[in-house]
Design brief:
318 residues, mainly alpha, Cytochrome Bc1 Complex, Chain D, domain 2, two-stranded antiparallel sheet, 3% strand
């Protein structure tokens, strides 16, 4: 059985370097992070452009009602689950280091591996992975509304720049190999009160659809290709945003706890990633990648084991 150390090295290698997505190096821009965005949207003059921006906001905040699995118009049920965009992109995509939208429109299109990646490409990666669904037609009103909202949120961001607070917060490598066993304890202490013992969160009451608190695994969650299904992304996100009330300036979990609870989350079953992987890969930062140990070497007590009921292996003598 492969050890977590080997799996962690693979995960880190996959996110090291420069790509299109979360936690690219921020530029030296002096542009301020946007504030009072909901108020500014409320104050927009009536008209088709305003309607489109507001519809885009509604799609982000109430995704399942409009384009989720249980959409009120079945013809628009592009999502494969009932998650909302803002279940990950918190506060309507405005919270710093929660993968906000403040620099998204300004950084697309971009060239990745000699391929031009457009903003619709990036949006549809989220549709296919986070929402476990199918892509929106690029000429649909829904796609145009999402683009209009992203452009409005980031209208003051200079083209090609990323504001401080964009993407995910950099996180140090863990001191110990991430452990799902330790993560289970962290989850019980800090996460279970909202996400539940079964990790299924808190569904909204009918006739509403969606979640007050999203599921972290299972059929209703994001699929294995989503960023949150990768341990490094998940640890970065959790450290800066969880539990509720935490932020990048006042994290609740230690670095090790964030890695451990991320390990606990990702060992649980979830929908399988689609065969075609995203065209725009997400990155955290350039992380040092240590040489892995032998692929079959055991690190007692530190394996990422899907069967958490299995007893831990005996501790080796030093």
């Amino acid at each position: 059985m492969k050890t977590v150390a080997w799996e962690l090295c693979i995960a880190l290698a996959a996110v090291a370097g420069v790509g299109a997505g979360y936690l690219l190096t921020e530029s030296g821009t002096t542009t301020r992070y946007p504030s009072n965005v909901p108020q500014k949207i409320a104050e927009l003059k009536p008209g088709p452009e305003t309607d489109l921006i507001r519809y885009g906001r509604d799609l982000v905040e109430d995704t399942p009602r409009f384009i989720g699995k249980s959409a009120q118009n079945p013809a628009l049920a592009y999502g494969g689950n009932n998650l909302s965009c803002q279940n990950c992109h918190l506060n309507g995509g405005l919270k710093p280091y929660a993968a906000p939208f403040v620099s998204t429109a300004a950084t697309f299109p971009m060239l990745v591996d000699n391929k031009v990646i457009t903003l619709p490409d990036r949006i549809n990666d989220c549709m296919r992975l986070g929402l476990n669904g199918k892509p929106l037609p690029e000429d649909s009103r829904e796609m145009q509304a999402l683009i209009a909202y992203l452009e409005f949120v980031g209208k003051d961001t200079p083209t090609g720049e990323r504001l401080p607070g964009s993407g995910l917060m950099p996180i140090a490598l863990p001191g110990d190999v991430p452990s799902a066993r330790r993560g289970e304890t962290v989850y019980a202490q800090h996460c279970v009160s909202c996400h539940g013992q079964d990790g299924q969160g808190a569904p909204r009451l009918p006739p509403e659809v969606g979640y007050y608190v999203p599921p972290l695994w299972g059929e209703g969650s994001f699929n294995g290709g989503a960023g949150m299904g990768q341990i490094a992304y998940a640890a970065s996100y959790i450290r800066a945003n969880m539990p509720i009330g935490a932020d990048h300036e006042n994290p609740v979990l230690s670095v090790q706890e964030a890695w451990d609870v991320a390990a606990f989350m990702i060992v649980h079953p979830r929908p399988v990633a689609p065969a075609r992987q995203p065209v725009a890969q997400m990155v955290i930062e350039e992380l040092p990648i240590p040489a892995p140990p032998e692929a079959d070497a055991a690190l007692p007590g530190q394996e990422l084991v899907p069967d958490l009921s299995a007893p831990p292996p005996p501790v080796r003598a030093p």
